[in-house]
Amino acid sequence: MKLRLATFNAENLFARWKDRRADAKRFDNGRGRADAKHGNARQGHPNRKHGKKKHGEAPFRHDPARFREYDHKKRELTARAILSLNADVIGLQEIENLDTLKRFNHRMLGDEYPYQILIDGNDDRLIDVALLSRLPFDYIRTHQYLRTKDDRDWLFSRDCLEVGIRAGKKRVLPVFVNHFKSMHGGREDTMPRRAEQSRAVVRLLKERFGKDPGAYAWAVLGDLNDYMPSAGLKPLLSQPWIVNVVDRIKDPRDRWTHFYPGNGEYNQLDYILLSRSLAAGNPKAVPYIERRGMPRRAERAGEWWSEVDDRKRIKASDHCPVVIQLKV
After folding, report:
1. Mean pLDDT confidence for 48-70
2. Cβ-based burial of 25 (10 A; exposed 0-12, middle 13-18, buried ≥19)
3. What is the pTM of this model?
4. What is the Cα Rg of the chain in Å?
5. Which domains occur in the chain, in start order?
């Protein structure tokens, strides 16, 4: 069967509230962080303090004098970017929680995806990886509880969410959704953490599929928060049984998925990695990168939806979604 597979960092897809006060402050309780800008904290994670929700309480009750909604027009563009892909399965990053994902799918995507999964992960900003699918799930695994080698922190910044997609009566396609450690704090200083995460994904693939994981069909995707060449991504992308299909785009200048205005750099931070066998079975498949929802300051996008407005910070995301059609 044919399957369109995609990845997208939706940039802070929250159902929270922005604090109107200019001097909103964050606090850190040592294990997790709540943000005064948002007016609520994550519930249900064993390593975060949380309050009990009163029975019958409105889910997003707020004081309009102090809090305002996140921009609805931006979320409409986020939805437009997703729908433009016509993806059957899409891994997402920076989603608040499963309720938010379900609400977004219902209100903004018209219930396009009957299957949704998100498991609260490790991020102090309360952002998670998730997956939307038109196809049912065979199994779901979280790897968020793995620890770093020195046991001082969680290994995955968010999670390495593994979902088996039923791609036919007897076919299951394992998809691993990632969002690696960001470059905040300096690319080189954060490189070792991404390298450890890369090695962990390789280890998981070998544990799952044996000494030659490339002999099986699977996909790793997500925002890996770095660009090649990178010592942080090399342990993963250098494996001979992994194919970075964005490299199939002929012009290297057209492979970018993120624009950083600080230094004017265009780089690929978002990846669809296929196993050797899955890539070999789709030799002519080339991914499409949707850039019409990017900020207009990313001039190399070349074309934008009319609603994109840099002055009002209205955009689909600061990342581009990537999609590829495969035969599985």
Report:
1. 47
2. exposed
3. 0.85
4. 19
5. 2-15+69-327 (3.60.10.10)
